[in-house]
Amino acid sequence: MSLGRYDYDRRYRRRFWARFGKFAMFAVVLLGVGLFAYQMGIEQLKGRDVTLREENAALSRQKAELELLASQMQHAARTAEAKAAELEARLQREVPTGDLARLAGLIGERLKGGMDANRLAFVITQAQPVRNCQQPENKRFALATPLLKTGNRAVTFGNNTVTVSGEGQSARNPQGAQESWFDPAQPVTIKVTSIGGKQTVATGVLPLHHAVVVDNAEYRFTFTAGARSFVEVTADRCPFP
């Protein structure tokens, strides 16, 4: 009986340890699988972390580039706005409006119609505000030249208060020889002499404009080329001041 009991206990222990061994082996395998899976998960997480870091760095670079581009575009927009404002101000300054635009249109029409620009400028300069002036006097005199210095070479205005005379350069004929009359295309010298001997001079190519004040009166002269040898003089006499 004791031998049978012994065999039974031994077989029981063997079965126990066999089961325990299988369980331990299963646990070891399961633990190995778990560790392997854990390690794989760690590696995947590390790889994903690296990928995310790279993507984040790329996004940061793109953000910096976009911010730089936005700053450049804002600067360009501000520059464009400043230029537009400058052009608008320049347009307002240079493009005539109102009465000035109307006058500019009239001048343009006259120039297109063939009117000489110098003649038109002369007419405009003669337009003056309404003043209490006497009726203009129109006279003419022969302009002295190197070949023609004798004779009546002056005219007077204001009851001989002001004397006007002058001299010019001799014209030349087709052969180049000097003539006695002056050349209206060359500068002339006009002398305005008032009582007491005070003299003022206007020099240049006709037409010329000149003004003097004598005895509380302002004489405003316009000198233009007339018939051969002659200078036409228009004198306005107005109170001064």
Task: Outline the structure in words.
By secondary structure, the protein is of the alpha+beta class. The protein folds into three domains: 1-95; 96-127, no CATH class; 134-239. The protein has helices at 2-94, 98-112, 117-126, and strands spanning 137-142, 154-157, 162-167, 170-172, 178-182, 188-194, 199-204, 208-214, 217-225, 230-239. The strands form three sheets. It has a four-stranded antiparallel beta sheet with strand order 1-10-9-8, with no helix packed on it. A four-stranded antiparallel beta sheet has the order 2-3-6-7, with no helix packed on it. The protein has a two-stranded antiparallel ribbon with strand order 4-5. β6 and β7 (199-204) form a beta hairpin. The longest helix is centred in the N-terminal third of the chain and has 93 residues, at 2-94. It is rod-shaped and about 175 Å long. The termini are far apart. The mean pLDDT is 84. The chain crosses the membrane at residues 20-38. This is FtsZ-binding cell division protein ZapB. Residues 42-90 form a coiled coil.
Task: Throw out a few tags for this protein.
241 residues; alpha+beta; 4-stranded antiparallel beta sheet; 3 helices; 10 strands; 49% helix; 26% strand; rod-shaped; transmembrane helix
